[in-house]
Design goal:
The protein is of the alpha+beta class. It contains 5 helices and 12 strands. Helix content is 26%, strand content 39%.
């Protein structure tokens, strides 16, 4: 799903300049890794009350906001070109400047600089209760974000479910001081995800073989969860992202980034 991931990530960046938790992925055997990851989470998140820092990117200034607005409009007007260009990029490769982006080359340089240098820091504080019951972990937020109520971690069978969607273990994450976008510092943890792409109700086994112009005919369900621990203390970093897209239209979107500290 390389192309679709690049496409959705680029659009998300233009829309919200959200951070990425992609890091070095260290694979073990699937069964051993799943057990280790869930034991890590169980130790990291004991039952009790938590003070939670809600994380986000700093607000854009007027000039930066105007650049993003112009890019978003231009991409909508030049979608065939945009999809073709995105599909031709290598993993991790930046899209080269083109006039079809609707901005000047200097403005595009500003966009790249902002999107790659933004640090994620505290933008608010909320309260959260974590409950351990029947070998499972449940989340009860006092206020924002209510979507956490849909997250359940089943310790007995080593499974994670979000809004009735079962997530699969993906990898270990190691974010050192050079890679992390968190102002709070480096962290290590694990990630789980679920990705399903359908066309006319039929599951697409290899979306990268599809013509990029078909992007608006697809139903996409993507959920990603990362749970880690800061290197310098016992604070838990939790990142949850969910995208539900129906034929190019976003039906639901959640981006939650939190630092949890037990009271």
């Amino acid at each position: 799903m390389t192309f679709l991931r690049r496409y959705l990530s680029f659009i998300a960046c233009i829309t919200t300049l959200l951070f990425s938790v992609n890091g070095f992925a260290q694979e073990r055997t699937k069964t051993d890794s799943t057990v280790i990851a869930l034991k890590f989470v169980d130790t990291l998140l004991p039952e009790g009350n938590y003070i939670v820092e809600v994380l986000g990117s700093p607000p854009l200034n007027a000039a930066e906001s105007e650049i993003l607005k112009k890019m978003k409009l231009a991409i909508q007007q030049n979608q065939d070109w945009f999809l073709k260009t995105m599909s031709g990029l290598k993993p991790g490769e930046l899209m080269p400047y083109h006039k079809n982006l609707g901005i000047s080359e200097q403005e595009y340089a500003v966009f790249i600089q902002v999107s790659q240098s933004a640090k994620i820091d505290k933008i608010g504080i909320v309260k959260l209760k974590i409950i351990h019951k029947d070998n499972s972990i449940y989340f009860e937020p006092e206020d924002f974000p209510h979507y956490l109520k849909e997250l359940t971690i089943h310790l007995k069978d080593y499974t994670i479910v979000i809004d009735s969607i079962p997530l699969k273990y993906k990898s270990q994450r190691i974010m050192d001081s050079k890679k992390t976008t968190l102002v709070a510092g480096p962290w290590k943890g694990y990630s789980w995800d679920f990705e399903e792409i359908r066309k006319d109700g039929q599951l697409i086994a290899d979306p990268d073989k599809m013509d990029p112009s078909e992007i608006n005919t697809l139903d996409i369900k993507s959920v990603k969860l990362t749970i880690g621990k800061l290197d310098h203390n016992d604070q838990c970093f939790l990142y949850l992202r969910s995208n539900i897209v129906n034929k190019g239209h976003v039906l639901a979107k959640q981006d939650i980034a939190l630092l949890l500290k037990k009271e």
